[in-house]
Design a protein that fits this description.
Number of domains: 4
Largest sheet: 9 strands, mixed
CATH architecture of the largest domain: Beta Barrel
Shape: globular
CATH superfamily of the largest domain: L,D-transpeptidase catalytic domain-like
Distance between the termini: 55 Å
Strand content: 25-35%
Radius of gyration: 25 Å
CATH class of the largest domain: Mainly Beta
Number of helices: 11
CATH topology of the largest domain: L,D-transpeptidase catalytic domain-like
Length: 450
């Protein structure tokens, strides 16, 4: 993002002085003392507050931004653009992530310190909608586990069409396998045949599963499934969309329902699938060199980092230009998952550095859980009574984003904030929710009769 920083500093200075009661004509010493005071209280956060709260709002907001589908020159490695957007009351990061086809891991890493479930209204969120393509053959489906991102490549004449989607991947105990595979079959509304190891895990938690789960809201495969040549592994949808962007599967690749529907329609049987693990990516676009860093899954991250450094040194040698290695190390240490521009290897590319887009908040976030109105003749489940309202709102949001959804809200009276799930039509439905809260969230819910 390119600022006229001299003008911005003047505006920020006037607004800041007005807020704290200083005259804009105050001397530099007074301003220095003021900034030192802010920094002593909040550290670098103060700088962010000056930029976010005291600068004037952008004069123009874009309505839309590219999210999934891109066309790229075959010699380029970077797609998409970053965006910033103001948050509304009641937003959660999982809702923002899903609307913009991002994983919760990506949004959270790009906005360190932001509350996942109860971010402040008016706060600006960075949407990391720019990606460096994995360093591998661009054919068929390529999955980068470290970035938790799937890339679907198709020829488009002299250009390359790329569709990309966030994914959920396997846990540390049951990791997603890597290597070359292909799609062996496709299934709409698949039946899930429960593996013995998963059935045993659920039995130990007091949640016995049947041998198979038919299509429907309780099926963790969702509505669409692509079966891989590696037996027992799938690319599929989910009934737990808030888990996309997490290490939360039993080794399969999990997509948002709307994303897997598109991928399913555009992916024929025999499509090659290459699963890699690249936490450090180096790429170029329009003569600019970028690095993108993700937190590595395991200790082998050091080896992968050295490989990325070797690629950068090679580019540096060929271009004959030195660049700031301190900036590289900062990007690696922060691991925000954002392509960071390092240096220009040809002149005249300043205008080609992708500017950050300022977005208007959508009127409605796609997929955001809706909470039914209260009913006097319904059953409810009391999840907790808390004294801190923010804690109560956070817990309600977590419950509300379970899959399938458990509608939850906060009912406040004085300093007591009740987290209530419901309404439910029958006692049986309410009892099922009590069981799910106990197993999934370790919450002891209490039935509330009509």
């Amino acid at each position: 993002m390119v600022f006229n920083f001299t003008s911005l500093k003047k505006v920020a200075y006037r607004n800041l002085c007005r807020t704290v009661g200083l005259s804009p004509s105050s001397n530099g010493f007074q301003l220095t003392i003021l900034l030192m005071f802010l920094l002593s209280l909040h550290g670098c956060t103060a700088i962010k507050e000056v930029l976010v709260n005291f600068l004037p709002p952008p004069s123009h907001l874009e309505e839309k931004i590219e999210q999934n589908d891109f066309v790229v020159a075959k010699e380029d490695d970077v797609i998409g653009r970053l965006a910033v957007m103001g948050l509304n009351k009641g937003d959660t990061l999982p809702d923002i992530a899903r609307h913009f086809s991002l994983g919760i891991n990506t949004v959270s890493a790009a906005n360190p310190g932001m509350d996942i479930w109860v971010p402040e209204a008016g706060e600006r969120i960075l949407l990391p909608l720019s990606f460096i393509l994995p360093d591998t053959i661009r054919k068929g489906i390529v999955i980068n586990l470290a970035a938790m991102r799937l890339f679907d490549f198709k020829e488009n004449g002299k250009l390359l069409a790329v569709s990309t989607y966030p994914i959920g991947v396997g846990t540390t105990e049951r990791p997603t396998p890597m290597g070359q595979m292909y799609i062996v079959r496709k299934m709409f509304r698949p039946t899930w045949y429960v593996p013995a190891s998963i059935a045993e895990d659920h039995r130990k938690k007091g949640d016995p599963l049947p041998a198979k789960i038919p299509p429907g809201p309780l099926n963790p495969l969702g509505e669409h499934a692509l079966y891989l040549s590696r037996s027992s592994y799938l690319i599929h949808g989910t009934n737990k969309p808030a888990s996309v962007g997490l290490r939360a599967t039993n080794g399969c690749i999990r997509l948002y329902p709307e994303d897997i529907e598109t991928l399913f329609a555009n992916t024929p049987v025999k499509t090659p699938v290459n699963i890699v693990n690249q936490p450090y990516l180096v790429g170029q676009r329009d003569g600019i060199v970028y690095i993108e860093a993700h937190t590595p899954f395991e200790e082998s991250g050091a080896t992968k980092l050295e490989k990325a450094y070797a690629k950068l040194r090679n580019i540096e040698k060929k271009s004959g230009q030195a660049f700031d290695w301190k900036k590289v190390k900062e990007a690696v240490a922060e691991a925000r998952g954002i392509p960071v521009p390092l240096f220009e290897i040809r002149h005249g590319s300043e205008k080609d550095v992708a500017k950050t887009i300022k977005l208007k908040h959508p009127d409605k976030l796609y997929g955001k859980p809706e909470i039914p109105e209260l009913k006097t003749d319904a059953w409810y489940v009391l999840a907790a009574i808390l004294h801190d309202k923010v804690d109560a709102l956070r817990l309600a949001a977590i419950i509300n984003h379970q899959g399938p959804q458990i509608p939850a809200r906060v009912l406040s009276k004085s300093d007591r904030h009740r987290v209530i799930a419901g309404p439910f039509n029958t006692m049986g439905e309410a009892k099922d929710v009590v069981k799910r809260m106990k197993i999934d969230l370790e919450i002891e819910g209490i039935l509330v009769e009509p």
